[in-house]
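Marked as duplicate of an earlier ticket. Keeping the data here for the record.
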Amino acid sequence: MPKKVSALVTETRGDLSIHALTVTGILAGMAALVAVLDKAPTSAVVWLIVALIIDGIDGPIARKWLSDSEVPRFDGYILDLVIDYVTCVIVPAAFMWQFGVVSHGNLGKIAIASVIGSSALWFSQNEIESSEHYFRGFPASWNMVIPTLWLLDAGPSVNISITLLLSVLTLSNIEFAHTIKVERLRKVNVISMTVWVIALLVMSFQSSEVNLAEKCILLIGPLAVACITADRALQSHRTLQVSTL
């Protein structure tokens, strides 16, 4: 086999290996969905977190190792979006209904429809990230939000209100920071997200209700995201003011 052809085959195999790693995310998503259908919320949360971890590691690996050669049939970016839509939207939406995060009435159905519909529009954007790696609109991270609402147990009315608000933010121009890629406040972002994931994992195994102190720990992640988002909005506003002077 000629050297150029051999090198191309080797690169293609490497690319497909990385795509295979990405595909394992859908297997974790399937396991999470089965757990939801089996009415096993703890298992569902665990598998959603596994899918989140896979999604977090396959991106850096792909950027480092994927070749510049074209893989005719498979696009890693589109593959990642398809899997994310299942693990971050469809499975959490099923979780909402199965475990009473929303009421089993028209309002609950509207809330779930807003999650699925707004997320579909968000994933179909031409540019999901800015050049500075900020997401345009709430990045449909329902795999984190829905289990958090379930553990906080604030009631269907509060949960529906939060769901509708975030669905509106999904379609907004408000910028949300990518956990790893955005340099500004990166340490705060990474630490708070790590605390959030660990808190979700640990508290999902509790047989008793989550107490107030634990709820405060669980809210560290969402509050950090809100503060970093507000910081970005203020930063953009100041930049706009300076440019108009």
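See parent ticket for discussion. Confidence is low (pLDDT under 50) at residues 1-14.
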